[in-house]
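Protocol step 4 of 6: structure prediction from sequence.
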Amino acid sequence: MENELITIRDYCVNYAIDPSFIQKLEESGLIVLTIIDGNKFLHFEQLMEMDRYVHFHYDLEINIEGIDAIMNLLQKVKHLQHEIEHLKTHIHIHEGINLPHKLQD
């Protein structure tokens, strides 16, 4: 389990991140931290997300609320893309049916 976690302190030192930024991400529900013996840890599987959040915040100057909105919109886009793929599959199953030209594209 220790191999899958990094302390917030180590993460902040290695990536020159303000610990309050991580605290705000946790408060907003964007990340989930684990507490062991009073120390907060970030799961390695969240590091790619953290890279994205750090880029949004420090490079693009987007606040936590903006990051949350962006992530919600990206999740909706992903859901819609999945739904489109499902509908395309459904259409291909029924290709023999005479569909309007716009739906066949």
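Step 5 (inspection) to follow. The chain has five helices and three strands.
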